[in-house]
Amino acid sequence: MRHPIGIHKLALAAFIVSSALVIIAGTVWGVRLLMLRNQTATQSTNLANYPIGGFPMTGNLAPDFRLIDQFGHPFTLSSLHGHEVVLAFIDARCKTLCPLTAQIMYYARAQLGAPAASQVDLVAVNANPTATSVAMVQAWSIAHGMLHQWLFLTGTAHQLQSVYHLYNVYVQVSSNELVEHDPILFIIDAQGHERLYFETLDSNSQSDLKNQEIGLEAGMRQWLPQPQ
């Protein structure tokens, strides 16, 4: 039979070891937390670490298509060769996420300055196949200050669905005509090649919007047409 004092000593030793393990574990997690915070702080000042800085694409030719702009004029994507294109998908009835995308596009191009900005065309394809009239895309453009800042394209539901398919953009319309779609945009270089794609964050935070503008601006600068 083991002496009671020995049992107490063993219990005390076990308690000390357990306490030490808890302290060590706590210290390790504390260090990891500090490293994560430092990493986050570094990322906030390093654009290259942001996915909103753009995801590289294969460089394939962007699929061409034919639609109608907000003024009722026919349009083909290939007509913009020689200019860089920022191509977005915008719901002509959206009042939440799509206006953020338009804002990011507008301010990112503005930050390029006049000479460079003139080499970048902003284009939006209507991501709502149930609201396809020219009047709808024109009214949306006016409401968000984009009437003369971009081309907002529309067409028949079939034509729009064809463009969604060409660019692998998810668009789903519910039974009550609510639209869910990828909040995505592409940078296409002056030779018509797909270079980067971006996704708009579902956030009204000014810091989030500013970071996305910075990311898109950097992408635009990277693929500006080179002087001949």
Brief account:
The protein has 228 residues and is an alpha+beta fold.
Can you put this structure into words, describing what you see?
The N and C termini lie far apart (96 Å). It is globular, with a radius of gyration of 26 Å. The protein has a 6-stranded mixed beta sheet. The protein has a two-stranded antiparallel ribbon with strand order 2-3. Strands 7-8 form a two-stranded antiparallel ribbon. It is built from 6 helices and 10 strands. Residues 1-5 and 7-50 have low confidence and may be disordered. β9 and β10 (194-199) form a beta hairpin. Helix content is 43%, strand content 18%. α2 (97-110) crosses α6.
- Radius of gyration using CA atoms only: 26 Å
List SSEs in N-to-C order.
Answer: HEEEEHHEHEHEEEEH
Q: How large a portion of the residues is in β-strands, by DSSP E? A: 15-25%
Q: Give the total of beta strands.
A: 10
Decide which structural class fits the backbone.
alpha+beta
Mean pLDDT value: 83
Largest sheet: 6 strands, mixed
Q: Order of strands across the widest beta sheet? A: 1-10-9-4-5-6
Distance between the termini: 96 Å
Coarse morphology: globular
Q: Provide the low-confidence segments as ranges.
A: 1-5, 7-50
Helical coverage, percent range: 40-55%
Number of helices: 6
